[in-house]
Amino acid sequence: MSNEALDLIAEKIGDLSPRSAIVLGSGLGSLVGEVEDAVRIPFAELAGFPASSVSGHAGELVAGRLGGVPVIVISGRVHYYEKGDANAMRAPIETLAALGIETLILTNSAGSLLEEMAPGSVMQITDHINYSGMNPLVGEESDKRFVGMTNAYDAALSFKMRHAAEKLGLPLYHGVYMWFSGPSFETPAEIRMARILGADAVGMSTVPEVILARLVGLKVAAASVITNYGAGMTGSELSHDETKTMAPVGGAHLAAILKEMLAGGEHEDE
Predict the structure, then answer these.
(1) CA–CA dist 161, 155 (Å, integer)
(2) Residue 204 burial (CB < 10 Å; 0-12/13-18/19+)?
(3) Among 59, 140, 205, 252, which residue carries the largest CB count within 10 Å?
């Protein structure tokens, strides 16, 4: 973590004092447009922050209010598959914790393994399978590396997300997310394996950030916007263009859920 980046963010956001942050996945950048009184800081101005090479990822930190609640939005994560670094998002996550963030909400685009969970759906992540075998804590020399993952996805936050969806009358699936390293999509055989092992959705992100967030003591909630069915389920080939096209469909529902979740959480604390 860079003290220079921390000082710059603190100076620009002033007395906003956000306690929640959101990391946006592929094609979900439109949520940034709903942030009121937005202060935007490109990653290029933040020492130690990585630059994404993936289309659909803006690469900026946005601070303001979402649903009336102070929040920081990270628009543009970096994936393991870009440079083979599972630890790529460590600096942003450590910086969020140093700024006083307590809750990290992670979002992504994912492929569905359930016939009933069609593209455009939203799935709350209740647990994950790290099929990639990679871990951002490899090389960490202290005993901090032995991070417990039994409660990786905070139960209270999960309840708030479901309650928000119910209040809005929006469907919200829940299930297990399996992390593949990417960048190539999964094969039909791998999708069949994932279903047998208990996964409900597959994707190429999020798991490293969950591990890093738990390392620094952040509470985590996460959700996937379903952009396609898994390979072999429809006979069609998969593409990143499909991801960018379909993400805004479920993204609008997820944005509404997150705004209600944040607003509801603040009211409960009052």
Answers:
(1) 10
(2) buried
(3) 205
Name the residue type at position 70: P
Cβ neighbours for 175, distance < 8 A, ≥ 6 positions apart = 114, 117, 123, 124, 125, 126, 199, 200, 201
Residue 10 CB contacts under 8 Å (≥ 6 apart), including other chains: 99
Q: Distances from the Cα of 63 to the Cαs of 24, 40, 89, 144, in angstroms?
A: 13, 7, 18, 29
For the chain, which domains are there?
3-269 (3.40.50.1580)
Per-residue pLDDT tens digits for 222-258: 999 999 999 999 877 877 777 777 788 888 899 999 9
Q: What is the torsional sign of CA 175, 176, 178, 179?
A: positive
CA–CA dist 64, 21 (Å, integer) = 10
**Single-letter residue type at 111:** G
Q: How many angstroms separate the most distant Cα atoms in the chain?
A: 53
Other CB atoms within a 10 A radius of the CB of residue 167 amount to 12
If we measure between CA atoms, which residue out of 204, 192, 229 comes closest to residue 111? 229
- Cα separation, 233 vs 115, in Å, equals 8
Token couple for 210: 């969950």
DSSP strand pairing (60-66 vs 36-42): antiparallel
Going by their DSSP bridges, the two strands 219-229 and 20-24 should be labelled as: unpaired
Helix, strand, or coil here: 37? Answer: strand
- Asked whether the beta carbons of 83 and 181 are under 8 A apart, the reply is no
Residue-wise pLDDT tens digits, 48-97: 898 766 655 468 999 999 989 999 999 988 899 999 999 999 999 999 99
